[in-house]
Amino acid sequence: MIIAVDGPAASGKGTLAAGLARHYGLPHLDTGLLYRAVGLAVADKVDGPAFESAAIAAAQALDAGHLDDLAALTAAETGVLASKVAVIAEVRAALFDFQRTFATGPDGAVLDGRDIGTRICPDADVKLFIQADSKARMERRARQLEARGVAVDRYALFHQIEERDARDMLNPHGGFYQADDAHLLDTTQLGIEAALRAAIAIVEKAMALKAGGQKPS
Ligand SMILES: Nc1ncnc2c1ncn2[C@@H]1O[C@H](COP(=O)(O)OP(=O)(O)O)[C@@H](O)[C@H]1O
Ligand SMILES: Nc1ccn([C@@H]2O[C@H](COP(=O)(O)OP(=O)(O)O)[C@@H](O)[C@H]2O)c(=O)n1
């Protein structure tokens, strides 16, 4: 079974994807880490043609060994760099096979990102599109960073997330929109456990409909 989980920054898609993967015994790929690794590789370059060509080369050379330094990869600044390399079509193309190969393993997989249901796995068995209002997302990300000992300026973080969301939504190569057959799950009022229960209920219903030969409503 392939489960696609998409949504904006800090909506909780990674937490849900990890929970679904545990529940169904599937491998999980946080595809944002790939873009973050490429962003990190070009952190010393300034915007322009040199930035673009370095990002393309980094994406083409990317392998699992570049995904280990979680502290650096998950820093807020790395998220901004990731969204800058994510607008380069050749970067997205270079990362496509890695994601597709992961998704089409023997058992399937759970992938989370922005374009899983639209570009990477348009054939996913179940697609979830996770939402939460911007203030809730900012607060979640702030607490996540603070739990790691990072000092957070909430005002700056809010604007950084809004800027990144806007860049992602306007990205002509990004595929960041709710697929027609994706199920919307708004987690603004849900805690982690309640959100996971809701996600599992959606997957169960979708799989039951599929087994019965019906299309999702
Ligand atoms: N439903 C929820 N309620 C409260 N906190 C949540 C919820 N879902 C996720 N979180 C927390 O919010 C932070 C961001 O979640 P994460 O899954 O990393 O988001 P994303 O992958 O969308 O960026 C994490 O610290 C996570 O534990
Ligand atoms: N499938 C994906 C995943 C991430 N990305 C880009 O990578 C950035 C970082 O993604 P992420 O999922 O790690 O970010 P968060 O939602 O965790 O903050 C996003 O803002 C997008 O620009 C993408 O374009 N496509």
UniProtKB/TrEMBL annotation:
<feature type="binding site">
    <location>
        <begin position="7"/>
        <end position="15"/>
    </location>
    <ligand>
        <name>ATP</name>
    </ligand>
</feature>
<keyword id="KW-0418">Kinase</keyword>
<keyword id="KW-0547">Nucleotide-binding</keyword>
<keyword id="KW-0067">ATP-binding</keyword>
<dbReference type="InterPro" id="IPR003136">
    <property type="entry name" value="Cytidylate_kin"/>
</dbReference>
<dbReference type="GO" id="GO:0006220">
    <property type="term" value="P:pyrimidine nucleotide metabolic process"/>
</dbReference>
<dbReference type="InterPro" id="IPR027417">
    <property type="entry name" value="P-loop_NTPase"/>
</dbReference>
<dbReference type="GO" id="GO:0005524">
    <property type="term" value="F:ATP binding"/>
</dbReference>
<keyword id="KW-0963">Cytoplasm</keyword>
<dbReference type="GO" id="GO:0036431">
    <property type="term" value="F:dCMP kinase activity"/>
</dbReference>
<dbReference type="Pfam" id="PF02224">
    <property type="entry name" value="Cytidylate_kin"/>
</dbReference>
<keyword id="KW-0808">Transferase</keyword>
<protein>
    <recommendedName>
        <fullName>Cytidylate kinase</fullName>
        <ecNumber>2.7.4.25</ecNumber>
    </recommendedName>
</protein>
<dbReference type="GO" id="GO:0005737">
    <property type="term" value="C:cytoplasm"/>
</dbReference>
<dbReference type="InterPro" id="IPR011994">
    <property type="entry name" value="Cytidylate_kinase_dom"/>
</dbReference>
<comment type="similarity">
    <text>Belongs to the cytidylate kinase family. Type 1 subfamily.</text>
</comment>
<feature type="domain" description="Cytidylate kinase">
    <location>
        <begin position="3"/>
        <end position="203"/>
    </location>
</feature>
